[in-house]
Amino acid sequence: MSRWQYFLRRVLMSIPVVIFGTTITFALIRLGPLDPVSAILGTQYNPQAAEQIRTNLGLNQPLWSQYLDFMYRLFTFQLGQSWVIAPGTTAYELIEIYAPRTIWLGFWSVVIALFVGIPLGFYAGLNPNTPSDYAASFGGIVWRAMPNFWLAIMLVTALSQLGTWTNGLFAWQTWIVRTNVVTPPALDFFQSPVEQFLEDPGGWTESFVRATKQIAPAALVLGSASMGNEMRIGRTAVLETINSNYVETARAKGVSGRSLVWKHIFRNALIPLVPIITGEAFLLLGGSVFVETVFAINGLGWLFFNAAINGDLPLIGTLMFIFILILVGTNILQDFLYTIIDPRVGYDG
């Protein structure tokens, strides 16, 4: 079986998973306690108006009819409109507003986890039982153990009071560019970035730096647990690879240290990290409701939370469908990366 046949097979096998996940989503939002009619009417609730709204929204239709309509609309990407949070606003418009903030947060969270956690873990694995190994291992345990909600509150408090603690010598709000500690990132520089950069390079760069600074504390909190986890697993993977027979054989054949590390140790040590990286990348890109709330990011996590507590059923279904697609997509990407790192995968029939 070729790599692309293996990839196509994984894609086809994911279709029942998407259907099953979407069906469970429908069951939870239709059979659960959420009542969008009560949320729409609020204090002006009366039975006649409630019945009229249920009729208009199709909630009086048989459950099987609602299910077929729900599935058809999702799989044809007719995502509908919000009922409660932003009545009359399409789900596409809401996603267009809130998704860039979550993607920006998730991107920097993944960068922190990948480019800090894995290199430190590999370095500790290459230098076992040394002070640097102990320091990296201890740091990984500490970062892994700190809950996101606690770290978020502590970081907001520290950054807010930093100017007072240093007698005005250093304040986060005025460092590099002026920003608030908790604020949604301004992502205007994403709109026609090439044109904006050519017209005003200094202004575009300042906007980029400001948006990065605004998201940095939240990204550090969201990526901290993943960073510690990847550091720990990376260290273990390197230690196991160093002691393997093929590394000993390569060393006995006179393979240079640099070639041994890059071609034999690092590549094989990445194999157990692939499912960790792809799985955590989905969680980080999906954002965190609490982190987005504490830092006022107001991304997809915040939108999903508000849709859930207000009973905005079409918006809940749309966001869950998107999360399911992202989850399935990351798993397919994981399988594809396996075929690159370990060519034996996918060729055994």
From TrEMBL:
Gene Ontology biological process terms, A to Z: transmembrane transport
Gene3D superfamilies: MetI-like
Topology relative to the membrane: Multi-pass membrane protein
Transmembrane segments annotated in the record for this chain: 12-31, 70-92, 104-124, 149-170, 269-291, 303-328
Keyword list, A-Z: Cell membrane, Membrane, Transmembrane, Transmembrane helix, Transport
Main localization of the protein described in the UniProt heading: membrane
Domain ABC transmembrane type-1: from-to ranges: 99-334
GO cellular component: plasma membrane
SUPFAM superfamilies membership: MetI-like
Subcellular location: Cell membrane
Family the UniProt entry places it in: Belongs to the binding-protein-dependent transport system permease family.
PANTHER family reported for this sequence: DIPEPTIDE TRANSPORT SYSTEM PERMEASE PROTEIN DPPB-RELATED
Protein name: Putative dipeptides/oligopeptides ABC transporter permease
The organism of origin for this protein: Haloferax volcanii (strain ATCC 29605 / DSM 3757 / JCM 8879 / NBRC 14742 / NCIMB 2012 / VKM B-1768 / DS2)
